[in-house]
Design brief:
The chain is mostly helical. Helices cover about 65% and strands about 5% of the residues. Helix 5 packs antiparallel against helix 8. The protein starts with 9 loop residues before the first helix and ends in a 6-residue tail after the last helix. The mean pLDDT is about 90.
Length: about 220
C-alpha cells in the first residue's frame, strides 16, 4: 500500500517525511535516494519531492547528483568543527549587537527553560531536550533583526543534533546548563563582553567541548 501524503503543503510534508526517515536511520548517511522509486512509494509526483530535496540540500542534509540520484550526506569531523565555529561567531555577535534589547522577562524565560532542561536531564528524559535548548538560545537570537542569520543557524543546529543514534550524555548536558547559568548571570550583570566570550570560547568552542563531542558523535577524533 502506498504511503499517501496529505495534498496540503505537500513539499513541506515531503521534507518532514525525509527528515524523519534520516533521523530514524532508514536513510543512512552515505546512502542514495532514488527519486523515481520514492515518488512511486509515496504516491506523489517528482515536483514536491524535488522541492523538498532542494531544501534539504541547501541545509546540508543531502547532495543532489545530476542523473544519479540523491546522496544522504555524512556528518564529518570537519562539518562538526566548522558548525561549532560558525554558531559561536553568530551567537556571540548577536549578544554584542543587541544586548540593549534584553529586559527582565528575557532573564525569567532563560531561567525557566534552563531549569526545565536540568530537571529533564536529571530524570534522563531527553525527548524534548533539543527543542528546549533551541528555545533557550532563540531568546537572544530573536532579538536580532537579521532574518538571514536566523534562517542560517537553525539548519546548522539540526544538522548537528538531528541524526540517527543520538547518544545523550548526561554529564555534557548538565555542563551545558551550567554554561547557560553563567551566561544568564553575566547578562544580568551587564557584562557584555564576558557573556559573548562564554558562547564563543566555551559553549560553542569545538576544542573546549571536544571530549564530549567525540563521545556524542562516536567519531575517531584525534587530538
Amino acid at each position: 500500500m502506498k504511503n499517501q501524503l496529505n495534498v496540503l503543503s505537500l513539499s513541506e510534508q515531503v521534507y518532514q517525511y525525509l527528515r524523519r526517515q534520516m533521523n530514524l536511520g532508514i536513510f543512512l548517511p552515505g546512502s542514495t535516494i532514488n527519486m523515481a522509486e520514492l515518488s512511486e512509494q509515496l504516491g506523489i509526483s517528482k515536483t514536491p519531492l524535488r522541492d523538498a530535496l532542494i531544501l534539504l540540500e541547501a541545509e546540508g542534509f543531502v547532495t543532489i547528483l545530476p542523473r544519479r540520484g540523491v546522496k544522504v550526506n555524512t556528518l564529518t569531523f570537519l562539518d562538526v568543527k566548522n558548525s561549532y565555529h560558525a554558531i559561536g561567531i553568530i551567537e556571540s555577535s548577536i549578544i554584542m549587537d543587541f544586548f540593549d534589547r534584553f529586559n527582565p522577562s528575557h532573564f525569567s524565560r532563560f531561567e525557566e527553560l534552563n531549569e526545565k532542561m536540568i530537571s529533564d536531564i536529571n530524570k534522563e528524559d531527553f525527548k524534548d531536550l533539543f527543542k528546549t535548548n533551541l528555545k533557550f538560545h532563540d531568546i537572544y537570537i530573536d532579538l536580532s533583526d537579521n532574518t538571514f542569520l536566523k534562517k542560517f543557524i537553525i539548519p546548522i543546529k539540526q544538522r548537528l543534533y538531528d541524526f540517527p543514534g543520538q547518544n545523550f550524555i548526561k554529564e555534557w548536558e548538565l555542563q551545558n546548563c551550567r554554561e547557560h547559568a553563567q551566561l544568564i548571570k553575566l547578562l544580568k550583570q551587564g557584562s557584555l563582553k564576558k557573556a559573548a566570550e562564554i558562547l564563543k570560547q566555551k559553549h560553542w568552542s569545538f576544542e573546549y567541548q571536544k571530549s564530549f563531542i567525540k563521545q556524542f558523535y562516536n567519531m575517531g577524533i584525534r587530538n
